[in-house]
Amino acid sequence: MNKPNAAHLLISAFGIEIFCTQVLFIYTPLFFIFNSGDSVLGSFLRALAYIGPVLFGYYIGVLVDRFEKRRLGCTIAIALGGAAACYSVRLPDQTLAETVIFLAAVSIGTYFLNNLRSSVLPSVAQASQLPKLNATLLVTENIALIFAPLIASLLLSLSSPKIGFFGIAGLFCISGLIYLLALPSSQPTSHPRQRRGSFLESIGILTSNKPLLRLVLVVMGNNAFTGVYLLNVLIYAVGTGHFSAQNAPNLLVWLAAGAIISGLTASRAIAFFGNRKLTLLCCLLMAVSGALPLLLPNQAVFFTSCFLVGFFESYVVIAVWTLRQTVVPADVLGRVTGITSALFKVSMVIAIPVAGLLAEYYTSAVAILFGIGTTLLGATPLALSLLHDFIKKYRKTQAPDLATARRRKAATEASKQ
Question: pTM above the 0.85 mark?
Answer without folding.
Answer: no
